[in-house]
Amino acid sequence: LKAGGNAVDAAIATAACLTVVEPTSNGIGSDAFALLFVDGQLHGLNASGPAPQRISIQELEKNGYNDIPDYGWVPVTVPGAPGGWAALSSRFGKLPLAKVLQPAVEYAEQGYPVSPIAGSYWEREFNTFQKKLKGEEFSYWFQTFAQQGRAPRIGETWRSQDMAATLRSIAETRSESFYRGDLADKIDRFSRKYGGYLRKDDLEKFKPEWVEPIKVNYKGYDIWELPPNGQGIVVLMALNILKEFEFKEKEVVDTYHRQIEAMKIALGDGQVQITDPKFMKTSVEELLSDNYAEEKRKKITKEAVLPTMNKIDRGGTVYLSTADEDGNMVSYVQS
After folding, report:
1. Taking Cα atoms as reference points, which of 208, 256, 265, 262 lies closest to residue 239?
2. Which domains, and CATH codes, for the chain?
3. Is residue 282 annotated as a catalytic residue, yes or no?
């Protein structure tokens, strides 16, 4: 902002820096989702990538998978964040993308002290990966993120010249190198060498998508989220369930109980229903309808609803928000 940029530039710069200073929660290979209020208009960007073309349920079953594993090539999708940065910059940014990404390049190149939260997560993940990640393909993670044979300790300086070079290439080419250039070639070669499904043509076909935000009105306020495949709709579903309840006091059991139950119902339904919108069997309109809310509201009694989720998802997300003097605002998730 001090350099003359706007809220969009600030969001991109922060998101890129977070891939460096909080690698335990996100990375260059992340997906990205943004709600923007620019010049009085609301916009949505979905920069999440699909699964590679060469992977299928049949392929996974043939190789003995009943679920998507936490590690390896199977859960890898097309990374969307670099393309999202470029799309945001092109449409709404004021500064060149190379200038906006320069702080992230410098943090990677010169290093930064590891924060208490990142340090504790880093050590936990290192201990997990040391037990579970075997094989040459995983050795590069340890070379990058465990340079002394261990996780960096809280307060120690961590840096990566390779990460700096990757970010610089993305910055100088407005992410083209990542999807169609030398970085795409490197990703393709690495995937082929170690049995991955991702190929350069998957990267080439990816384009961030500008989408229409969705909303519900909760007690006089319009609450906006991005549509599926983003998970923000579960918040709207829960608010729709709750809107007919009267919450006269905050610090009482019934208030907490109803809010918790509504979120459990919405999260459970979200896990079953929300996917790529091209394949959803239930529409957004149906999930946000008064009939849906009324049906689910009846399930909230004095007793607790048993959650339908059978597996707690692992974390791995950062959130940021920015605003500028012109009233532009960005709400941004990188995961």
Report:
1. 262
2. 7-111+159-210+314-334 (no CATH), 212-297 (1.10.246.130)
3. no
